[in-house]
Amino acid sequence: MLFRSPCRRSLSTALPPWRPLVVLPDSSPSSFRDLAFVPSTPAQLPPATFQTLPAIQKWFHPHPNQTCQYDVDHDYLRSFGAATVPLEYSSPTRNFIRSQAPLSLFLEWLHHSNSHTEDRLYLAQASLSDLPQALRNDLPTPAHVTSSGRGDIYAINLWMGRPPTYTPLHRDPNPNLFVQLVGSKTVRLMEPSAGDSLFVRVQATLGEAASAKFRGEEMMQGREKEMLEREVWSNGDEVSGGSSGFEAHLQAGDAIFIPNGWWHSIKGTGECITASVSLYANAELN
């Protein structure tokens, strides 16, 4: 059972902390289905549940100087360099740009960049179905998904980059099994009503009335991005406005379940390559 704050507090009072997600008692698909998916309850799976995924073993290798656990296996991924992937470009002096480019361009940037490089590339929301078959085979659908709901996948999206990476506060229309392949990420989640209230409050402050269902590049730049990031990530371990919030810290092979409608924002942390995959299930129950 998720803990809920007994009262709502204003910005002028003490704010409740971000609380850790409930960790499932074991990594079995049945526990995932019965304790998280069916009741639509966010939860974290036991550590390293998915550490044996072929993608972890084939796309990455131990970092040569051991400052990081993993680095990209350029020799393996370079053979798929002609594949087209979505890249997000950002820098301190230029606007956010999202475009399609060869995977080889991203791999070249990874080779010459580090966590302090100002011009950033982020492979974001790459649909697994658009990638070469060999790469699709490296990410088989886990039994946790095939044994839940209708047992099929709505979409699978891949994310890869060098920290710091950032995904703004948003909500998804489908349940999301979010798996960390390598590196570190922190996820903050808000229940639907709390996230709705925060989004409406930010829109009112901006004098806007954007839809929470249809989000575009305004999420990634400008005042809306700045305000949402400040609301979710400022004040250390506190939630702005007194809303309920949960937090998970993910390492290689870890995973969390994000029910449809739950608001979440994600940051890639540390110095090392970070990669993750979102498996969006069809929500209809058997």
Describe the structure.
With 286 residues, the chain is α+β, with helices and mostly antiparallel strands. Helices cover 23% and strands 30% of the residues. The chain contains 8 helices and 15 strands. It has helices spanning 29-37, 54-59, 74-77, 103-112, 133-137, 143-146, 192-206, 222-233, and strands at residues 19-20, 43-44, 60-62, 70-72, 84-90, 97-102, 120-127, 153-161, 165-171, 176-182, 184-190, 246-250, 255-258, 263-269, 274-281. The protein has an 8-stranded antiparallel beta sheet with strand order 2-13-10-15-8-7-5-6. Strands 1-12-11-14-9 form a 5-stranded mixed beta sheet. A two-stranded antiparallel ribbon has the order 3-4. A hairpin with a 7-residue loop joins strand 3 and strand 4 (70-72). Helix 7 crosses helix 8 (222-233). The longest helix has 15 residues, at 192-206. It is globular, with a radius of gyration of 19 Å. The two termini are 23 Å apart. The model is unreliable at 1-16 (pLDDT under 50).
Give the structure's gist in a few sentences.
By secondary structure, the chain is of the alpha+beta class.
Mean pLDDT: 87
Distance between the termini: 23 Å
Q: Segments where pLDDT lies below 50 for 5+ residues? A: 1-16
Q: Could you describe the largest sheet, including whether it forms a barrel? A: 8 strands, antiparallel
Following the backbone from N to C, one meets helices and strands in this order, namely: EHEHEEHEEHEHHEEEEHHEEEE
Helix content: 10-25%
Class by alpha and beta content? alpha+beta
Shape: globular
| Number of helices, where a helix is a run of at least 4 consecutive DSSP H or I residues | 8
- In angstroms, what is the radius of gyration? 19 Å
The beta-strand count equals: 15
Strand order of the largest sheet: 2-13-10-15-8-7-5-6
Beta percentage is: 25-35%
